[in-house]
Amino acid sequence: MKGRYGGFRLSGDDLLAYELQIGHYYSRPPWMEEMARARELYRLATDDVELVTSPDRVPVGDWISRTGITAELQWALGFGLSSTANAWDGEKHPHVPASVVDELLDRAGLSDRGESALGVITADRAAFQAAFSELHASGKRFIWELRPFNTWPFLRLQGTAGLLLLGRPWMLSWLSEGFHYRAMRVAQAEDAAATDGRGDHVQRYTAYAGQVFEAYCLGLARDGVPEPALVVGEQKYGKGGGQKTSDVAVLIGDDLVLFEVNARRVGAEPLLTGDPLDASKELAKLLVKKINQLGVSIGALVDGTAALPGVDMSTVERIIPVVVSAGRVWQTSNLWTYLDRARDLDKCKPFEEGRVEPLQALDAGEYERLLALAYHGGHLGELLARKASGPYRHRDLAVWLAEDKPVADHHVRLPAVEAIFQSMISELEPLYGMRNDG
User: Do 223 and 341 have their domain in common?
Assistant: First the structure.
């Protein structure tokens, strides 16, 4: 398969790498949902009564504090600076005068730690140059290398000129997935230093982040899918309980929707190189691995090796498999050609079972939007079956919703997500005198 971009004809593999790049860099997710999700993932990682007993648990809150200030103060400072810099209004100039910066630091109780606090979110030209040099950003890599901007979305101007916001996408990244990456950098430093004689801090953190994301997705499904639907988490089966069913299962009528989730984000290397091999390796970790797991889970449920409490498989007429990833990809027929080719044929044999609908994929934001549609009256099974059966099977959820129009209003949100964001705003009222009218 070949595609044409800018007058150049690309092979299927080259096109796959290019689509991975542009699908990531041109993504513009809704900012409220992104920030609310990051905050809830942080809360689960630090406070959830079940997750704190995980053998993989790491001190996420302490790690983020080691980057300069606590996560809570990072949120307060970041939101205050972004609001002042008109980050959410592209028609206004994104400058923050020095006097306003000082006032924000004072309101947040950071006046005595101004340098360390600003060092988390701002950098001068020399720091940016050093960061690009350390990342070996040159040639084609320089074009796609944006990590320093995600790390410091504000440029610290000379003298008392204040701060300049370099871009809204980088500010949004800093206030959302940035908390994940700031913790990850500490885990990497711990491994490099062999803290406590261990070199598995990154491994433990990624495992724990996966458990946190699974808990988040399960909690949203329980909040979002109305009764009489049944929502069930993963169930152990097999010898010694060594295998597990999908992370989230929803029984609604005679439809069984199975979600297999992955907390992984798209790695930096394939985005920088545009190399087909790097792209295929990344997609194998992001999607193919989970597709294979979902195939095995379906097979176990169908043959009775595994069971879900409250679910009688003999009455299920449609099984709808969905893979959900934290990382965003651009869905195209070329991507799905690769996924069909790369999956394990034996593990995915159950997808051919007569009751199983075509496999679908969602990112975290699309998963939230789908559950919001269900909460506001849409039938989860019918929505997914409709998307999978027509010309939008290999397209992004937003494209399908906008063009096929399966619901009257697809600009809906889950009340649980709105409540998280409103709670975050309420915390800022004492600092910035903001009103929270809902």
Answer: yes
